[in-house]
Amino acid sequence: MEQFQSHVAQAQVQAQVLEFRAQQLLRVKLQQAVVALASKLEPTQNIGVLQVWRPRAAPPSISWQEQQLYADPELFLMGDACFAPFRMLSCQSWQFGHQGMPGRVLRSGCVQVVQNLRIIPDVLHPRSRLSEAVADEVGEVVYVPVFDTTRPHIGPVAVLEALLLARATDSMLVANFISVAGSALAALQLSLSNPLPQPVRRSRLEGRKPRPVHPDSSPDLQETLAAAAAAAAGAQTPAAGNVATEQQHSAP
Predict the structure, then answer these.
(1) Rounded CA gap, 159 and 144, in Å?
(2) What predicted TM-score, i.e. pTM, was given to this entire model?
(3) I need a labelling partner for 252 at 20 to 30 A (CA). Which of 120, 193, 229, 236 fits?
(4) pLDDT tens digits along 40-57
């Protein structure tokens, strides 16, 4: 019994060591991704602040509402100094999954773009940490989930949060940010989309009969139906005449 417990304890220690190494490697990769974004997107002209949110525990271990996230103090990109207080507040405390956009993106595993901060309740991140004056400087907010392709089964391992400037000079900034982020992550064995094949969901319309089209819906359809009816009537007329002729010949 003692030998079995010893093996279990040893396996747990080995798993913790492997997880620690994986997290350290992930941080290095994320730092390289931030550097790549900074080199291609001209942060001072386009980005207010970029920060990386990471879960405290592996995503599958607890529900997304109870998952705690933190803004990594070393992984960020400051494009405008007016966002420094927002950045400081983000780093000061943990955030539960249901308290803001990073947790929701961690749950969905999908890229999300907030085109107007006013649609987010002021009690949720990022509105809860932005002053009104700084919020007016924000154009769109982009959230990019990060998957580790070497460990795809654990789901998203981080979320990139980029507050883009309303005065940005790049007219295609959102699309370019997502494209550059995807390329930078792919070069590091990371991905912004789930690398695992997703189940195919059956359509709700599958198996239903097609709904008949109302004749009044299209003039062309009316002409087609009329022509078909005339052709059918023409095909039946000779047959009726032949029947009448046969009856006349058969009469005594």
Answers:
(1) 6
(2) 0.73
(3) 236
(4) 999 999 999 999 999 986
